[in-house]
Design goal:
It is a single chain. This protein is α/β, with parallel strands linked by helices. The chain has a single domain, classed as 2-Layer Sandwich (Nucleotidyltransferase, domain 5). The chain is about 40% helix and about 15% strand. It has a 5-stranded mixed beta sheet, with helices on both faces. α6 links the parallel β4 and β5. α5 packs across α6, α7 runs parallel beside α9 and α8 packs across α9. The longest helix is centred in the last third of the chain and has 18 residues.
Length: about 240
């Protein structure tokens, strides 16, 4: 009989890639200027949001010196274990036929971890993406990614709350935090929604906008970005 750890996909030592990933962030320093860090902005497409659902696409773009590297992107379809279990097809329009010849998550994830390298991770509502990525990493690589992470949803909330106009103690907080709506509101370049790479590009533009606007444009270090984006930004 398999042990409980084996059944949960937690048995075994972390892969060499994950050990290297951990080493990148040993003694991580948040006090350097933002431009000193590399960021990987990511997005995933999923078969659904249930625990039994799976990743079917990963898209990512790298930011260096606070500039998007359009030549440094990652985009890969992923074949799920059950091709017929894809409740979200009507949203992302990825069909079973497109996934039939795609590599599995066991093949794709190491390449994605290599692409991320020593970069910080960025995403919009990032807990969902990281939840699925780390669940797959535990199962296939023996651990989770150590990269510190920044959620543009939290940055957007901090930015809007800092700019609210309050009269008689009432603040209108009915605005949307949808990635597409925020991009339209801030007049950012627009990309196709529900495509992992294009959503990652959309999020990259949002991240750079917020990093430059938060704190009245006075945010200089990663630590300061963390402080203006409280309650939760880095992990």
């Amino acid at each position: 009989m398999r042990s409980l750890l084996e059944r949960l996909g937690l048995a075994g030592k972390p892969s060499p890639l994950l050990l290297q990933n951990r080493a990148f962030f040993a003694g991580f320093d948040q006090t350097r200027p933002l431009a000193d860090y590399r960021f990987v902005v990511l997005d995933t497409e999923l078969t659904g949001l249930d625990r039994r659902d799976e990743i079917i696409s990963i898209g990512a773009v790298r930011i260096s010196n606070l500039q998007i590297e359009l030549g440094a992107t990652f985009h890969q379809y992923v074949r799920p274990s059950n091709l017929n279990h894809n409740q979200a097809t009507f949203i992302h329009q990825i069909t079973p036929e497109q996934l039939r010849e795609a590599p599995t998550i066991e093949e794709v994830l190491p390449a994605f971890v290599e692409f991320c390298g020593d970069s910080l991770l960025v995403g919009h509502f990032l807990d969902i993406d990281m939840g699925f990525l780390n669940r797959a990493a535990r199962k296939t690589m023996g651990g989770i990614l150590a990269n510190p992470a920044v959620d543009t949803l939290r940055l957007a909330k901090a930015y809007k709350e800092a700019n609210l106009s309050c009269d008689y103690g009432y603040c209108d907080q009915s605005f949307s935090y949808n990635l597409d709506d925020l991009s339209e509101e801030f007049n950012l370049p627009r990309f196709k929604a529900h495509d992992a790479l294009e959503d990652a590009l959309q999020c990259a533009y949002l991240f750079l906008f917020l990093a430059r606007k938060l704190g009245g444009g006075q945010v200089q270090t990663l630590q300061e970005l963390h402080q203006v984006g409280r309650p939760v930004l880095l992990r």
